[in-house]
Structure formats: C-alpha cells, structure tokens
Design goal:
homodimer, about 325 residues, alpha/beta, Quinone Oxidoreductase, Chain A, domain 1, Rossmann fold, seven-stranded mixed β-sheet, 15 strands, about 25% strand
C-alpha cells in the first residue's frame, strides 16, 4: 500500500520555509513478527519542532536528520498487527512523524482508552497537558493562594497551566497576543485576568493584575512579558522556563534581565524539556486526565486538513495565528 | 566605660562614601541579669553589607536603620557576664556591628572552641565558609569529576568554594582580577586553572580551561564572566547565584543572557542568601571545620587597624583591592 510522508531535507534559517521539506510516496513493507502497521489519524504540531529541525547539538534531543521523516507525535489506529499487545483496532499515541502510515515495534506507543476523542488526546492528555503539569506541579510547586503569571497563556500549554493552577487555588493571570484570546481566557477558562501583551502599559497592567506580586512565572514566550514578570517576582519566587517562542525564530535573541534580583529575592529559575520525562508520561497523563474528567480543563483545537497542510501550517505557531491546539487531520 | 561605635546616618548613592557614617562615643550600661558585655576583637567586612545599607525593601534582610550602629559579624571576648552560658573569657562569634563593645543577651551568639585564631574564624568558619558550603554543596550539588567555574574566585567566599570543590574531586577553574590573585589560586590553593578576567580573550581562555564544559557555575560577580560561563554550561548545569559584586555599586546593571539555553540545556539557576539559613549556621560551620582541620582550606586575611578604618576600608571589597578576607582588628 502506498502512502505519503514528509521528509526534512534542509535546516531552517530563521523562519520555517516550504523548501526545507519534501513530500515522498512510500510503500508499506510486509510486517515482521512483533510489528504493527499504524494509520495516523491526527498529527500534532508543536513549538518544540522548531528545535528538532535545527542542527544545534546543544538542543535537548538530537535534531531530525536530513532526509528523515519530520518528527511529531500523533494518534493512530492499528490496522495490521503481528504484536500481541496491539491488536487491530487499538488506538495509540506516539511519535509517528509527518506520515500517513507508520511501522512500529510498539516501543514508545501508548494505547488509548476508548471514548476519548483524538482531539482531546492531542490537545490535553498528550504533550501540552503533560508539559503543563510537569512544569507547573513538579517544577513550580505551587501553593494555594499564590499568584501565577503565565506568558503565552492562550497557547496549548499555557491554557492548561492556567486551568490546573486555577483548580489548585492560585490567582491566575495570563498574557496573550489578541483581545479575542484574552476574552477566551477570562470568560471560558476563568483566568482572574488576561492581558494583551501589545498594550503600551504592560508593566502597569501586570502590576495591577498581581497586587500581591508574582510567586510563580510560567515562561512560554520570552520578550517583554519576561522583563515585566521578572520585576514583579516575590521573595522565593520560582520561574519555570518552558518556552521562548518569541525568540526561537530570530538569530539575535534579546538579552535577559540582570541577575541581582535572583539573589535579593532568592529566585529559582529552571528550564525543562519533556524528553527528559518520557518515562513518566503515562503517570503524568493520568494526572492530567483527572482534571479533564472533572471538567476543569477546556480546550480549543485548530485543525488543518491533510498531511501537506503541515508544511505551511506549522508557522501559525510562531505568528500566533492558531486558534487552539494546532493539529493536522489525516 | 566609654567606647566607640559607628552609626549609619545616610543611605549610599552608588558608592560608599565616608559621609554616610558617624563615629559616636557611648558608655556601657550596668549589666542586667542574663546579659553579657562583649569586647570585640575582630570585625568582619563583607560584600553583603552594601545591601544592608540600602533602603531597598526587596533585599533579603531589613536594611540597617538610619542612626543604628552599622551591622557586621565579628569575634568578641566576654569581659563581664551575668549569663550562665557565657562566662567571662568565653570567645564568641555573632552580629555585633561596628563597635568596640556590645551588650548581648547571648541570642545569636556562638561560643568558639579555644585554639582557633579569630582570623581563621572570620575568614573560614564564619560567613565566607558557611556561604561557600551552602551554595556549593546544598544548592549546587556537585559530583566528583564535574567541572566548576567560580567567578570572584580569590574572594573570601570564592576561594573556599574552590577548595571545597577540589576536595570533593571536581575540576576547578576560577576567575579573578589580577595576575597575583590567579597565581595564588593556582599555586597555593591548587585550582586547576585561574583566569584573569581582564584578558582580551576571556571566552577562549574559559573554553580552553573547561574542555568538558561547565557543570556548575558559582556566581560571585556578574559582568563578562557571567556571559562567558553561561555560554559554556552543560546540559543539566546548575548556576548558584551568590553575589553580583560588579553590579552592586552601579545604578544601571548590565542585562543578563537570553533564556533560550535555560530550556535547551535544562539549566537551574538559583539565588540564595545566608540569613535564610541562620538556623543551620552551626551545622554548616562544623562541616566547613572538617575541611579546615584536614588542611584542605587555606586562607589569606587583609587586616585593617582600628574601628575607624572600616569607613574607608570597606570599599576595598568593591575595587578588588583587598588581599584576602577583609577584617578590622580592634
């Protein structure tokens, strides 16, 4: 059976351009014992992919090799099986890449319970949810009554961070790039306050929204929000550095704040990346599912149609053009 | 009995100038029950004092009030006693301030074992040693074989950090401001390498001295070493922020590095201040004493003579002019 896949054939310069990808047609081989054939139904597009495309060997997982199928996670159905744990009809989540079909030994795949839509899996239970939980709960260690500021709060991770923080009793403030996103955060997700970071009075608006200062800053963006948040940190404040999306596509990233407040306020700043925690994904995912099943996590999805749409569509993540968790329906 | 003391009467602007202090003559009162009279013999001068002079309420302990005797730690002898735990002749360490005599209830004082010279107490067992130990061992959590870079390595804290790190089996590199200090670090303290940060090739010299990258950066200074060190950090590197002495006396501190490497390398950056750990001082001091008694910690002292010498002498800490742990002999 023939299927389409997309290879990475060049490293991006600053922006992601269509010429760095190549669409290829492949043929499914005969399955060996222990193998399964997966038909991917939903493919996730995430900001971390920008790092996977670059040759920077200091990144947290090896880059995608040139000529290799572009890396991504997705939801798939087992359509042929020679593996006892994955009978035909099983739905799984895993790193299948930009492809319609994939052969797997089952390694790194997780079977999904029936009845949870693939969209909810990718938007909440998969990378966004476990990233949100790991950063907020295991690194940030929030306490009820504390104030959290989240940059990129309308993003797939930020929106879940805010809702878990709300469920845990924090005062939750977020920043986002449009008035529409801010209204969604306040009215649908019940953030205490959402601020459009394009305001000319960013520092003042953040100060007004955090009358007791900031105990926890969840960093998804970098940029001006970082400096305003840093200046509002309380003593023993924690900063969880999850993303710097406003700086990923530039060759001249902005400087960070001076470190004197790190001493004066005894701040802890910690970066993390989910590949370090893949062994805990299943446990983390179950913890996120608890909030989801209680109705404490709402989500929006932005669905692109067909494998090829990923090539241009991934840039929506960097322009802020996506209106929810970005994914491709195959 | 009459004695001299020095009050803080103004906040410093950028630099510490003599007009912010006032020498006063006081008289010792009659001791009440539970009180002791202390004659201070050695008074410590430390960089943290710059923060104690400022009104910045975000600093880690309250500033010295105007009109109050300037705060400092020191070694003293009990010369009169109405307190059973502190008989006449006991040597103690504690926060006595810029004064020749002090009345105390004993609170916050620690008795010193006989036979350890006051100079060693202030240079190693007191603030420098416990600060070095807390930052290096409890926050930095070093492992044998790792590489540590220490800025301000010839300073009272940095020189002990390097020697404890060496005793713990690390590859130890330090930066300092003069060739003489670098030679002392390499030849007397057995640092693997010491680099004069005034070199025009700072980045290259740091790279050459840390062929396996930097696992642990112990920050005492800020400035150019910070940027060079940050760029050399390894994955899962830790940065202990103990001091930013090159920025304390300026009103326009330099920006820090961009935060993208915090994610890519999953760095942890943490500030600390000893007043948070005063409950552990005795235990920390005992841990430092072990290295001292094994001959693993050498120290130099720079002794000023007489109470009044503190007024000008404290600036040696900020110009780098001191040739060892700075203290005043009374």
């Amino acid at each position: 059976m023939k299927y389409k896949a997309i290879q990475l054939i060049k490293r991006p310069q600053a922006e992601i351009t269509p010429d760095i990808f190549k669409m290829v047609t492949l043929e499914t081989p005969e399955l060996k014992k222990g193998q399964i054939l997966l038909r991917q139904t939903h493919m996730s597009l995430d900001p971390a992919m920008r790092g996977w495309m670059s040759e920077d060997t200091k990144s947290y997982i090896p880059p995608v090799s040139l000529g290799e199928i572009m890396r991504s996670s997705g939801v798939a159905e087992v359509v042929e099986s020679r593996h006892g744990d994955f009978p035909v009809g099983t739905h799984v989540i895993g790193m299948m890449g930009w492809t319609e079909y994939a052969i797997s030994s089952g390694e790194g795949l997780q079977a999904l319970p029936a009845g949870i839509p693939a969209e909810a899996v990718l938007a909440v239970l998969a990378l966004p949810g476990v990233t949100a939980y790991q950063g907020l709960m295991n690194i940030g260690k929030p306490k009820a009554g504390e104030t959290i500021l989240i940059s990129g709060a309308a993003g797939s991770v930020g929106s879940i961070v805010g809702q878990i923080a709300k469920a845990e009793g924090l005062h939750v403030v977020g920043t986002a790039g449009t008035g529409e996103k801010c209204r969604w955060l306040e009215h649908e997700l019940h953030f205490d306050k959402a601020i459009n970071y394009h305001t000319p009075n960013l520092n003042q608006e953040i100060a007004d929204a955090t009358p007791n200062g900031i105990d926890l800053y969840y960093e998804n963006t970098g940029g001006p929000v970082q400096h305003a948040a840093f200046a509002r940190m309380n003593t023993f404040g924690r900063i969880v550095v999850c993303g710097m999306i406003s700086d990923y596509n530039t060759s001249t990233p902005e400087p960070g704040p001076n470190w004197i407040p790190i001493i004066k306020k005894r701040l802890k700043i910690q970066g993390f990346a989910m590949p370090d925690h893949w062994g805990d994904i299943s446990e983390l995912s179950q913890k996120v599912a608890v909030y989801l099943l209680k109705g404490q996590i709402k989500y929006r999805v932005h669905i692109l149609d067909g494998l090829e749409s990923a090539i241009e569509g991934i840039n929506l993540l960097f322009t802020g053009g996506n209106k929810g968790k970005l994914m491709v329906k195959l």
